[in-house]
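Folding Task

Wanted — backbone structure
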Amino acid sequence: MKTQEKKQSEVDQKSQKTIQQRQGDLLFVPISEDSYQSLKSKFGKKLQSGVLITGESGHSHVVRDFHESIEIYANNEGDLLIKTTDQPLSIDHEEHQTITLPPSHYRMKRQEEWDWATEETQKVLD
């Protein structure tokens, strides 16, 4: 898993493009500023810290060097909107390689899996 994340990070650094990146069960997808602005009102809750998600094991996906110019909004489904416009955003996790997102707007989605017992999708907790 770490090797795949490392290769993805290297591709991003070489191309200098804003591409989607994955860290464990989280997918960071770049979106336009217009999409960010239209979705922001639907997300509502603004996070006051850099802790994005804490999994069942107690490990967290955390923004390194979180400061007030970084905007992070959460919705009820556990997805996030992230805005970092002045510097790259590094995200750490104890079990995964650190990823660095170029300055942009992102929608973070959690991986889902099908639960055959309940016949519903559920979010994966890393």
